[in-house]
Amino acid sequence: MRRLILLSLLLPWPALAHSELRGSVPAPGARLAAPPEEILLRFNERVQVTALRLRDASGRTIALRRQAGAEPAQEARATPEAPLPPGDFVLEWRAISADGHPIRGAIRFTVTP
Ligand SMILES: [Cu+2]
């Protein structure tokens, strides 16, 4: 019992933390001269992405085609079903972290005229 407690104290703290988004395409705040052909989220470990939603400035959802199945992966990819017009967009994502906890975030970017 005492050994178990000691072990848990020695576990590195990242092992107890949620998975994290490490990067995305488009990057947060990106201003793109051309519509993105692909949307990519990259995490620090394998997560189950449960939702990926792209909205325009009026809140309208833009159809995305997911590039992979529902299995946990370190990357999630999607392509807009039609080229994005100029404007502001927000990509909302939800995932199940490798530690089983729900995580979520939003990435804003702009397609310039
Ligand atoms: Cu967690």
Describe the structure.
The protein is mainly beta and 113 residues long. It has one domain: Immunoglobulin-like. The chain has one helix and eight strands; from the N terminus they run αββββββββ. The chain has one helix at 2-10, and strands at 21-25, 31-32, 39-56, 61-62, 64-66, 73-80, 87-96, 102-111. Strands 1, 2, 3, 4, 5, 6, 7 and 8 form an eight-stranded mixed beta sheet that branches. Strand 7 (87-96) and strand 8 form a beta hairpin. The protein starts with a helix and ends with a strand. It binds copper (II) ion (CU). Residues 18, 97, 99, 101 line the site of copper (II) ion. The site of copper (II) ion (CU) has 4 residues, from loops.
Summary keywords:
Immunoglobulin-like; 51% strand; 1 helix; elongated; 113 residues; mainly beta; binds copper (II) ion
